[in-house]
UniProtKB/TrEMBL annotation:
Gene3D superfamilies: NADH Oxidase. Keywords: Flavoprotein, FMN, NADP, Oxidoreductase. It holds the Pfam family Nitroreductase. This is Nitroreductase. The keyword Glycoprotein does not apply. InterPro entries: NfsB-like (IPR033878), Nitroreductase (IPR029479), Nitroreductase-like (IPR000415). It comes from Formosa algae. Its cofactor is FMN. The lineage of its organism: Bacteria, Pseudomonadati, Bacteroidota, Flavobacteriia, Flavobacteriales. Residues 9-186 form the Nitroreductase domain. GO terms for molecular function: oxidoreductase activity. Belongs to the nitroreductase family.
Length: 210
């Protein structure tokens, strides 16, 4: 655990990447697995992760990100997109996966399916969209922690034009919305941000024991 805390102290929101350094395929697969294994409510994973490799697309996304250099300088760029207006398909696909993975008949999962549909799918659209976006941030936390363990630098970003991203990436047609962006790679030596001391609330302010 001390190693884990050490790596969390090591990480920071990298503002300038070394464009010459690339994440290995092995490490990239580890990051993807960390997202895949993230907790999500009911296990539904109501999101999709786009890994943007195409240079022209990243240039377009940079413009939609107020020209922040991380978009094109980082080795990799992840766009975490939440499902909007989730319907019964989300639950039905999950139930099918559970049935096939665990060898349980769909009939035996019917009550579980109905419970999820009544608790989630029946919500008003705005509430559903807020819920699916919250699930994205759980995956984001896992991604950032995994990257820190691998000593891969990352910058989570909300500073972008989400509707523009949706248009550029065709997310509107996929019932998805760009919720958060993560650029990943290796810090540039002259990124001054890496030398800033972490500013966090003191323990007695952040935590209360009841």
């Amino acid at each position: 655990m001390n190693t884990y805390i050490k790596q969390l102290n090591w990480r920071y929101a990298t503002k300038k990447f070394d464009a010459t350094k690339k994440i290995s395929t092995q490490d990239l697969n580890t990051l993807k697995e960390a997202i895949k294994l993230s907790a999500s409510s009911y296990g539904l994973q109501p999101y999709k992760v786009l890994i943007i490799e195409d240079e022209k697309t990243r240039e377009s996304l940079k413009v939609a990100s107020w020209n922040q250099p991380q978009i094109t300088e980082a080795s990799h760029m992840f766009v975490l997109a939440n499902i909007i207006d989730a319907d019964d398909t989300l639950v039905d696909d999950y139930i099918m996966n559970v049935s096939e993975t665990r060898g349980v008949t769909k009939e035996n999962l019917e009550s579980y399916s109905n419970m999820m549909k009544s608790n989630v799918i029946a919500l008003p659209n705005e509430a559903k969209n807020i819920w699916t976006a919250k699930q994205v941030y759980i995956a984001l936390g896992n991604l950032l922690s995994a990257a820190a363990i691998l000593e891969i630098d990352a910058c989570p970003m909300e500073g972008f034009d989400s509707p523009a991203y949706n248009s550029i990436l065709g997310l509107d047609q996929q019932n998805l919305n760009a919720a958060v962006v993560v650029t990943l790679g290796y810090r540039a030596e002259d990124d001054d941000t890496q030398h800033y001391k972490k500013v966090r609330k003191p323990e007695n302010t952040l935590f209360s024991v009841i």
